[in-house]
Structures are given as structure tokens and as C-alpha cells.
């Protein structure tokens, strides 16, 4: 059974690579993440991962007015930033006697990744100009640390979707509300960390703020934040905050 699932994961990673959704490194990382989830949680865990992966890929390819239609090819770093912590938590089920807590933490991490992705995709499409929580003013669409009401609503729905499916698939319908709040909290932490700690870069040619290390064919310069603390690391933090939040609730009740 596990062998069949692993072959399925390898096929999915290969298809994603062929259709230029993932780089070769991204495809390998996706295989490791999938295997790390399939071995402890079988097809139930994989279904949840597929829901996150396929949902956010399709969402990311919907047409948009404010942004160019994105055909971003995800790298190993981006794949790990979204699914790495969830896979490590899934695997931790072998280390701890209490597999209910490991499942709750795994689902919460994935809910946070989905929540953050939906917030970004929903906000940049239908949110209008976002409000930046640190500089207290409206700012450019897509900037870290900026929020919109639509994006925040999308974050809640994105978290709830994974929490509800995860709860039915792995926890017999329990804990869905706690995991929804945990995932949403992770996404909100992502915004706060993105606003206050993430490095911010500027293109010295066109004066645009960007998250990319190069723009207009030249290297961009860091203008604030912790050097090296990029979007991937903020996403990893987001997927760590959510399971910790869920664990705190689990241990309190
Ligand atoms: Zn530029």
C-alpha cells in the first residue's frame, strides 16, 4: 500500500515538473514532503496535501486584473516553506505516543500554509489596495505585511477548508474549529512577521519595492528588515506558529 502511494507521489511530482509548476528541485522536495506525509498518514494525509497543492495552484492561475497572470515555477525552497514543517510534523507521529496531537499539529501547519496562500491570492485579485500594518497606510498590492478585508476572509476560509477536511480524514471530525483558528493565526503571524522582520528590497533602477533579489536585470538592495529573512522563511514561521498554537490549546483543554 505504502509503495503504491509513493509511486503516486513520484508521478504527481513528475507531472508538476513536466507542466512547469515545479522546478526539478521543487519536484524532488515535493516528493520528499509527499513521502513524509504518505508513510505516517497514508492516503488520508496525501488527499489533504493534494487539496492544498492543487487548490493553491489553480487559485494562483486564475486571471487577475491587478497582477500579470502568474506562471510561477515553484522552487525547492518555496515547496519546503509551504509543506516542509507539515511533513516533519507528520513524521513525528513515530516519535510520540500521542498520535492525535501529531495529527492536529500536522493539519494546523497545512491549514496555515493554505490560509496564507489563499489570503495572498484572494487579496491581490479582489482586495483592492491593501493596508500596511506597520506603516499605517495603503500600499502596493502583493507587499508583505499588507492586508485587505477580502484577503483576511480568504485566509479564514482557506484555513477552515483544510481543517474541516483534515478533521474528517484523520481525526474523526474532531478539532476542526481549533485547527481553523490555529491556521488563521499562523497566516496572521505571517503578516506581522512579514511587516516587521522580513527583509525588504528595492530596485535601484525603477525604485520599486520587491521581494526578488534581482529586478530590471540588476541586483536589488536591502532597505530594511533582517537580511536573509526572506518570504520563504516567513512562510516557514507561519507554518510553525499554527501547530504551536494548536498544541497550546490541546494541552490546555
Ligand atoms: Zn526594477
TrEMBL record:
Keywords for this protein: Membrane, Transmembrane, Transmembrane helix
Alphabetical list of Pfam families matching this protein: DUF92
Predominant subcellular localization, coarse grouping: membrane
Keyword field contains Membrane: yes
InterPro entries: DUF92_TMEM19
Subcellular location: Membrane
Coiled-coil portions: none
Spans traversing the lipid bilayer: 28-54, 75-95, 146-169, 175-197, 234-252
Gene Ontology CC terms, in alphabetical order: membrane
Membrane topology, record value: Multi-pass membrane protein
Entry's family note: Belongs to the TMEM19 family.
Full protein name: DUF92 domain-containing protein
Amino acid at each position: 500500500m505504502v509503495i503504491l502511494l509513493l509511486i503516486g507521489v513520484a508521478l504527481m511530482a513528475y507531472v508538476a515538473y513536466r507542466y512547469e509548476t515545479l522546478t526539478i528541485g521543487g519536484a524532488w522536495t515535493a516528493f520528499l514532503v509527499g513521502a513524509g506525509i504518505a508513510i505516517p498518514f497514508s492516503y488520508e494525509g496525501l488527499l489533504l496535501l493534494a487539496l492544498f497543492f492543487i487548490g493553491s495552484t489553480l487559485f494562483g492561475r486564475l486571471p487577475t486584473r491587478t497582477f500579470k497572470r502568474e506562471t510561477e515555477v515553484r522552487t525547492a525552497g518555496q515547496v519546503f516553506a509551504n509543506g516542509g514543517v507539515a511533513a516533519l510534523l507528520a513524521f513525528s507521529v513515530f516519535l510520540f505516543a500521542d498520535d492525535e496531537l501529531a495529527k492536529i499539529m500536522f493539519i494546523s501547519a497545512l491549514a496555515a500554509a493554505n490560509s496564507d496562500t489563499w489570503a495572498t491570492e484572494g487579496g491581490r485579485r479582489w482586495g483592492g489596495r491593501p493596508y500596511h500594518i506597520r506603516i499605517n497606510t495603503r500600499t502596493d498590492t502583493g507587499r508583505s505585511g499588507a492586508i485587505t478585508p477580502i484577503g483576511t476572509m480568504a485566509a479564514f476560509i482557506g484555513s477552515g477548508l483544510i481543517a474541516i477536511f483534515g478533521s474528517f480524514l484523520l481525526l474523526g471530525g474532531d478539532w476542526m474549529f481549533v485547527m481553523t483558528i490555529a491556521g488563521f493565526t499562523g497566516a496572521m503571524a505571517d503578516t506581522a512577521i512579514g511587516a516587521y522582520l522580513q527583509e525588504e528590497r528595492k530596485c535601484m533602477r525603477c525604485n520599486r519595492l520587491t521581494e526578488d533579489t534581482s529586478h530590471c536585470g540588476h541586483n536589488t538592495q536591502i532597505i530594511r528588515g533582517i537580511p536573509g529573512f526572506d518570504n520563504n522563511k516567513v512562510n516557514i514561521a507561519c507554518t510553525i506558529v499554527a501547530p504551536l498554537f494548536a498544541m497550546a490549546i490541546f494541552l490546555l483543554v
